[in-house]
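Quick one, T. Sequence first:
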Amino acid sequence: MPFEKFTSGFFAEIKNFRLSWWHSFTNFRYTTADNLSVLPAYHLDHLQIDKKIISHAYELSAFARINNLFDIDYQAVENHPEPLRNFEFGIRIKYHHENK
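Structure tokens:
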């Protein structure tokens, strides 16, 4: 377990757009019982943009996200590299059904 872990986030909304940014810091972790070997500390950043379209019948949300924005090479567990920069895209449709 790291001694320190810190996560923060920021978002801004303009009309139906939302821009989100998350930053996390994970301090070094000992990997042996005698505390002679450690995994180094690392910082990670993620960026996401969302667009929402709302009508009387449905709500459509689309997003694009960049994980590990600065392409950091890190390990959360010894000898298990984590993903470098990667991308996610998604759409959610919420239908507004009225009971009669």
